[in-house]
Specification:
Blueprint: E1 6-13, E2 23-31, E3 34-40, E4 47-54, E5 56-61, H1 78-84, H2 93-106, E6 109-115, H3 124-138, E7 141-148, H4 173-176, H5 184-195, E8 202-208, H6 216-229, E9 233-237, H7 241-250, H8 255-261, E10 269-273, H9 279-287, E11 291-294, H10 296-301, H11 309-314, E12 318-321, H12 334-348, H13 358-378, E13 394-398, H14 412-419, E14 425-430, E15 433-437, E16 440-441, H15 446-463, H16 472-483
Parallel strand pairs: 1-4, 5-6, 6-7, 7-8, 9-10, 10-11, 11-12
Antiparallel strand pairs: 1-2, 2-3, 4-13, 13-14, 14-15, 15-16
Helix pairs in contact: 2-3, 2-15, 12-13
Bound molecules: zinc ion.
């Protein structure tokens, strides 16, 4: 059934900030999820201070309804932090992700990758169905990355099993606990079953969690499946130095060369992080059209390092912006994330040439925020640009706070990137539907659901028999494993 026509009249419209003109007093209309027209209107029809631009894309996330700090889990180096996630309270996947997606929507995020962290390995399909229901209820575009993992559950093992370094292993039941591990076939079957739920706004992707957590047979099978089905792949890669060291020891031919050999590198692949990528690896990834998600806040909070952004730009690698469930202030403010990225560009390429100049870095950041990052969710779909015939995904902000008087249009994009935050977001439209209006999510009872989630987590934390404090002796062993270079055969 065709959807009714909807329209929005705004004072300013930027088809893509930093690229092209600032249009005044415009009405954008949409039908069936597509922009039908953008035409001039009179000043009386528009709301003062309203400014429309393409919706933002969150190129890498985990859909956490409550940030990990709210679950009693402190930030830290990734390899320790991952082990702390074991004390995260279990919640319903629908409730958890609906709260996360609604909060993203209030930040102007119209599309996000959801890398699913399973709570119970045996019920992934049900959890995924809950996420699909949440995506549909909230209405933003979600790419669900089906997790494929199981290797190296505690540390990145090379020569010595982790268990061997414990003097009294029996005091650590996790070491010998039997763990359920999905087979490759189960993962592929779940992907196929979920594919039946795909829609304009829900996409299913292969999500090998990272090479250190996935065996070669899985990576090779996923490469082949992706090539034959066209389905995208989303994978963490080179987030930390320890991961790079493990990969160098485990793949003497070079892990990126191995990826290339098995056909993993293609425009269908998104890599998250890439903090420790080397120039020759960036060159090969770029040549194969691989997309990168830069997740600066997460890299800072999990002590991972920072991506080599100047090389990424020099080599012309495509990149988007991801929050990774770890935004700087735990509020999913992707505008701040884009600002951080611009700051990184300007400090790692200082001087009068290149992106050290904000007239260059600002358009690059908006492009990553609105267009390139979006590809990691939808693939190339013509979105991320407000023009007739393109997807009707748009954010409308109120500029009263950030723009008290007229400035030249040429400076407007830079001012927006410098000053806007999520609190300025008034409206989010995705696929022609209004998801956020007047700053409030219109599609789910957000406050009630957040309260329910808070109550569940609070109750679980009160009743928990284990807390973060119990992980300290465990973490000492993790530190020892890496300080003795056991993850690299002692190299
Ligand atoms: Zn992640």
């Amino acid at each position: 059934m065709p959807s009714p026509r909807a329209s929005w009249a705004v004072e300013r419209l930027l088809p893509l900030p930093g690229h092209g003109p600032v249009l005044r007093n415009q009405t954008l209309s949409a039908r069936d999820g597509v922009i039908e027209g953008i035409v001039p209107t009179t000043g009386e029809n528009v709301q003062a201070g309203s400014l429309a631009m393409p919706a933002f894309a969150n190129a890498h996330d985990h859909g956490r309804g409550l940030p990990t700090l709210s679950c009693g889990i402190p930030d830290g180096p990734l390899e320790l932090w991952v082990s702390r996630l074991g004390v995260e309270p279990h919640t319903l996947s629908f409730l958890n992700t609906a709260c996360a997606f609604a909060r993203m929507a209030q930040s102007g995020i119209g599309a996000a990758v959801h890398c699913h962290n399973t709570q119970n390995g045996r019920t992934l399909l049900q959890e995924a169905q809950g996420v699909a229901k949440a995506a549909k209820a909230v209405g933003i575009r979600i790419a669900f990355a089906v997790p494929f993992a199981g290797e190296n559950p505690f540390v990145y093992e090379s020569s010595a099993p982790f268990r061997d370094i414990f003097d009294y292993p029996d005091q650590f039941p996790a070491l010998s606990a039997s763990r359920y591990r999905r087979s490759l076939q189960e993962g592929l079957d779940i992907t196929d079953a979920l594919a039946e739920l795909e829609s304009e706004t829900f996409h299913v992707q292969y999500g090998p969690v990272g090479p250190q957590w996935t065996d070669r047979a899985t990576l090779e099978a996923i490469s082949a499946r992706s090539a034959s089905t066209g389905r995208r792949i989303h994978m963490h890669f080179f987030e930390t130095r320890l991961q790079q060291e493990w990969a160098d020891a485990t793949f003497p031919e070079g892990i990126v060369n191995y990826f290339d050999k098995i056909g993993l590198l293609s425009p269908r692949l998104t890599l998250a992080h890439g903090v420790w990528l080397r120039p020759d690896e960036i060159e090969l990834l770029t040549a194969r059209g691989v997309l990168l998600s830069c997740n600066i806040s997460s890299n800072m909070r999990l002590a991972s390092g920072l991506p080599p952004i100047s090389t990424i730009i020099d080599k012309n690698m495509k990149f988007g912006i991801g929050l990774d469930g770890m935004s700087l202030e735990d509020d999913d403010d992707i505008l701040r994330e884009a600002r951080l990225l611009r700051g990184l560009m300007q400090t790692t390429q200082p001087g009068i040439l290149g992106p050290g100049d904000s007239r260059i870095s600002t358009p690059v950041c908006f492009n990553a925020l609105m267009r390139t990052g979006r590809e990691s969710i939808t693939g190339p779909d013509n979105g991320g640009l407000l023009e007739e015939g393109r997807p009707a995904d748009m954010v409308i902000v109120n500029t009263d706070r950030v723009l008290p008087y007229e400035i030249p249009d040429a400076i407007l994009p830079e001012l927006l990137l410098t000053r806007l935050t999520r609190r300025d977001v008034r409206t989010l439209v995705v696929n022609g539907n209004t998801i956020v209006d007047n700053g409030k999510c219109q599609t789910i009872p957000q406050e009630d659901m957040e309260k329910e989630l808070h109550d569940i987590v609070q109750r679980a934390l009160k009743q928990a028999t284990a807390s973060y404090a119990d992980t300290v002796p465990w973490e000492e062993h993790i530190r020892r494993y890496y300080s003795d270079s056991l993850h690299t055969n002692g190299q």
